[in-house]
Amino acid sequence: MRMLLLLMLLTTSLLATAQQAKVVRLNAWYDAEGAAEIYDRIPIGLQFIFSDSSEQKTAGLLDGRYKWNRLDVSSSNGTISNGILTFNRQQLIRDHYRITFTVKGDNAPDLHAVITLPQLTGIRFNHYADSIKKDIRFYLNVEGKFSSGKILPLDTATIRFAASSGKILGQDLLIDKTDTVKTVTIEAWYKTNPEMYLRSVMPIKQLPDPDLPPLPGNTPGRRKSGRH
Prior knowledge:
Structural class: mainly beta
Mean pLDDT: 87
Number of helices: 2
Low-confidence stretches: 3-18
Radius of gyration: 31 Å
Distance between the termini: 124 Å
Shape: elongated
Number of strands: 17
Largest sheet: 5 strands, antiparallel
Number of domains: 2
Keywords: Signal
Order of helices and strands: HEEEEEEHEEEEEEEEEEE
Strand content: 35-45%
Signal peptide: 1-18
Region (Disordered): 208-228
């Protein structure tokens, strides 16, 4: 009798194990609001799809129950720490903006999922003024156009500048007050793809700004009227 009960329990356990749902697909997501266009550190999430059509998600971005420290997950570009991916942008460009995640399972095939991050499709100048004043720093505003549809400012981490006159100071152009040039040619290159190139010719303001008119009631040579 005991042997029969033992066999029944063993059979039930084996059937339950055989009927357990298995992971059949892995999906990966990234935070579209995390500005992956310009930042190299973004939140990510993983979604596990099971054979019974159920699903589980990682904690953090996807608000799931899977803890990151219990997963053996790696990335083809950069590192993952508690749901935050830090990647190398130059490698990202070489890999056509695709990053593959691999999750290793116990006695199960590895799972893979791919994300494609937004790529830069063009750059443009967006000058704040139509001319440059001497002896005043002029900010060189360059914007990037991305495949996500976003237009975001770029800085010297990604853009290299040159000018035919004056000095480049960080992302500013300074024309000396003694300079006699009438125009200045400004150039900009995207560092990781120099074929993305800009050229802009800006006039140099020659005349000083006119004096501001006096405030009402402060006209020179006149005194305010008042009671005596």
